[in-house]
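Friendly challenge for the regulars: who can give me the structure tokens for this chain first? No prize, just bragging rights.
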Amino acid sequence: MRLLSTSYFLITLFSMSATAQQVQLKSNDMIINAEYLKGNSTKNPVLILHGLLQTHHFSTVRRLATALNESGYTVLSPTLSLGISNRKMSLSCEAIHTHSMQSDTSELQTWISWLKAKTGKKVNLVGHSAGGPTILNYLVKNNTALVNKVALISLSYYASGPTANETEQHKNIALEHIKSKSDKIHNYALNYCRSYPSYANEFLSYYEWDTEKVSKSVGLYKDKISIVIGTGDKRIDSNWRKQLNDKYNNVFSIDGANHFFDQSHEFELIDIIEEIIE
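First reply, four minutes later:
Bragging rights claimed.
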């Protein structure tokens, strides 16, 4: 498995505007980027993680980061490298994907440690869509001492669902490649990607985060985690919403909101996230 080291150091910090700064760290010879918005030092800072193959420029992340900062929160919005040093653009489905859930989580750990050291306070984690399983993997693999509260927006999963293109056949092919000790790229599928070239282990690192594993992981940290879902979200199964509502108390539903909480629903989303992390 291709893993990133958790060692890092600050490369540069330069002003983008009156309040926004671009932060770059180096981890295992990989430059990773984030946008930093300084807020009130009395509030716990917020880290917002984007969804599958996106960046911190993604509209849902950007709107939320701006609004929380205007409410006084220090906000850090990382862009996962996905195996590309200094990545600044979203990654296409058809690109060769050498990243894994483990490497994503290693970078997330780096950013959480940096933000905790920068502010001296525990970090609130907010994940959109596929950013949710990455945050859950961090919680499972690491000590949660650095974490204050967690808000998972449009919490996604792999291996099933309305937009899932991955199948059990893809899983079986990957397992055969591992069994035969093959280290070749194969064209799998993942989530909305019909074509997803990757290595077997890297593909399976995401595939294994199905509804059962996601739900079980939420249960392990239910005192820290809140979930926000839209009843108009066509990217997750209605049974998934029902399962979350039946099992956990801290589930907020926004009537009519889609996967991205755009238009008028963004204001409801902001109010709920502030309620969760206060």
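The CA atoms of residues 93 and 193 lie 5 Å apart. Residues 9-277 form a domain with the Rossmann fold fold (CATH 3.40.50.1820). Your move, everyone else.
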